[in-house]
Fold:
Amino acid sequence: MNRKQFGIIFTLMALIVCVGVLAAKLNKTGYTDPTDLSEVLSQGSTDEKKTPEKDTEKEKDKETLGAQDYFYSLRGEKEQKDAATMQQLNTIIADANTSQAQKDVATNQLTEKTMIRDKENRIVLNVKNKGFEDAICSIDGNKVRIVVKAEELSEADNASIQEIAENVSSISDVIIEVKK
Structure:
């Protein structure tokens, strides 16, 4: 390895370390939390005089934040549950004391869980591409449950979401819920 190659490798490693440190700091301080911005905005507006128009705007903002919190918390719970399940399966697979039959079963379950997560993500992306602000999908056995952020759904929207879910998951039992 010559000096030029060493310099390039060293620079790339330094960049990777810097990005890792930056990501750790950003995640630690909660920049991914959607409520942070709302707290900053609400603190700035307490000094202003209250008017009926501003109160109405605040109520609308609270409703919007309630829906965001709902989707944020539901998505977080779902991801934690999925991660715990996958961690348990990986532990079973990696354990030297586990029989080969148990490892095979765990491997099949892990593969199936990964495929289900992929289908759920594809359904959510397709629903969002139809113009909805947010959506959450969960596939449990032979049921698909989709929660959509909208005021209300028309029959065409309902049929469109149903078709997306059936095409991606090959499951016809689809439950669609609306959350404002």
